Automatic annotation (TrEMBL):
Lineage: Bacteria, Bacillati, Actinomycetota, Actinomycetes, Micrococcales
Pfam families listed in its UniProt record: Abhydrolase_1 (PF00561)
UniProt keywords, alphabetically: Hydrolase
Protein's UniProt keywords contain Hydrolase: yes
Protein name listed in UniProt: Alpha/beta fold hydrolase
Alphabetical list of InterPro entries matching this protein: AB_hydrolase_1, AB_hydrolase_fold, Peptidase_S33, Serine_prot/Carboxylest_S33
Domain of life of the organism encoding this protein: Bacteria
């Protein structure tokens, strides 16, 4: 079992608006929890409570810590209580973290990482930014807030973190809810990508059956950008493989149809298909750049690494699925795959290319999960598994569920990876009732 000392803590602001109260917290935590007296970094968190509770009542509500998807994503910025947060705020104070390196926490990006030294120093620094460190940050924060065991809600990568929490510090947890985030407990990363390429191919087929005209449009765009110098708003070139990343929109019920709206905007009318429209290029850039979350790309495959090096698993496994190659006759759209070429093409990632290469080659990663502890788990836990999820494979999720004692599973085909954006209130309420029934 891992322990963490209480973090140093300060409140920087408090606000009330649109039916909620917020308190902004900053916590000082060790960069390396194995060296608590060493370098410290800051983690920002926003406390959110419903204004329906009188202030003195809200101050006594139990805590729910939200573990954000990603990796490398900051906490959600909300201006009113809606979705799952509206439901949760009926009985919890929600703590929305900017996980280390993101948002208003001590940043880790192309401007700050070089201040630490060269690629070797940057890679060593970033080795402390995985789920195990995030969980120990949570424990240090929980102690600083004076909370007993609290409720954790993990979405996507946040669910991976919740499994790490159950492995390393279960005494800090009262109950755990997970949506679209049951990670495989064992490596290598290759099997993750074999599963997700297969599901993504099926999702491509489903989408093109709905919008058959888009099959030819995708091929037309890819052929066009291969032959023409089309530039995104940041000045970088839109390449065929970079355009394929718009397939990220396939990973949800709430946004899959927006892919069709994007594609119909592709070419500027009146140019006989010779130029892509500015509106289209602007929308594509928002999807394919990692300027706002560079750690997503730099650390993505490390979330699956336990001992072995990831070695650009998604790129290697792509050879087994030639339909996803940009030079295929009718290329399929890609999803959550990070390939080395992105560090040559995205200006936000170019300065981090050598660092990313070192992390891809790194072996000796520590264990993220404790299978023996999970097999003896006593913390009430429930997970929503989305049957056709293209990001977190259903079969691998159920394999993991079978290895976590007492974990209750709700398997559904009604939602995709973005289920909590689709009907977050109902999903949260169902999972909470499942853990409370145990």
């Amino acid at each position: 079992m891992s322990t963490a000392q209480a973090a140093r803590h300060r409140v920087v602001a408090e606000h009330a608006f649109r039916g909620m109260r917020t308190v902004e917290h900053v916590f000082a935590v060790p960069l390396d929890h194995g060296d608590p007296g060493g370098e410290q970094i800051e983690v920002f968190a926003r406390e959110i409570a419903s204004a329906a509770h009188p202030a003195e009542v809200a101050a006594r509500l139990p805590w729910l810590v939200y573990l954000q998807g990603g990796p490398g994503g900051r906490g959600n910025r909300v201006t009113s209580l809606a979705g799952w947060m509206k439901e949760a705020a009926k009985e919890f104070r929600i703590l929305m973290l900017d996980q280390r390196g993101t948002g208003l926490s001590t940043p880790a990006d192309r401007t700050t990482l070089p201040l630490r030294g060269g690629p070797d120093e940057q890679a060593e620094y970033l080795s402390h930014f995985r789920a195990d460190s995030i969980v120990l940050d949570c424990e240090a924060i929980r102690r600083a807030l004076g909370s007993g065991p609290w409720t954790a809600y993990g979405q996507s990568f946040g669910g991976f973190c919740a499994l790490t929490y159950l492995s390393l510090a279960p005494n800090g947890l009262k109950e755990v809810l997970i949506t679209g985030g049951l990670a495989p407990l064992d490596g290598p990363a290759d099997r993750v990508y074999r599963a997700t390429y297969a599901r993504l191919a099926a999702r491509n087929a489903e989408y093109f059956a709905w919008y058959p005209e888009d099959r030819a449009r995708v091929t037309e765009i890819i052929e066009h950008v291969r032959a023409s110098d089309e530039r995104l708003p940041d000045g970088s070139r839109l390449t065929p493989e970079r355009f394929q990343l718009v397939g990220n929109l396939l990973g949800g019920n709430t946004r899959v149809d927006s892919l069709h709206c994007l594609l119909e905007d592709a070419f500027t009318r009146g140019t006989d298909g010779t130029r892509l429209a500015d509106a289209f290029l602007t929308q594509v850039h928002a999807i394919v750049t990692r300027a706002s979350n560079p750690l997503y790309a730099v650390l993505h495959e490390s979330i699956y690494a336990q001992g072995e090096a990831s070695g650009w698993a998604a790129w290697r496994v792509l050879d087994e699925y030639p339909g996803f190659r940009a030079d295929a006759p009718e290329p399929l759209l890609l999803g959550e795959m990070v390939c080395p070429w992105i560090f040559e093409q995205d200006p936000a990632l170019v300065p981090l290319a050598e660092t990313a290469q070192l992390l891809a080659q790194k072996s000796g990663w520590g264990a993220l999960y404790d299978p023996a502890q999970l097999a003896e788990n006593i913390v009430p836990a429930a997970a929503a598994v989305y049957r056709d999820d293209i990001y977190v494979d259903r079969d691998l999720s159920l394999e993991t569920a079978d290895r976590v004692r007492g974990l209750r599973v709700w398997e559904t085909a009604d939602f995709h990876h973005d289920g909590i954006a689709d009907d977050g209130e109902a999903i949260f309420a169902r999972l909470l009732s499942m853990v409370r029934e145990q």
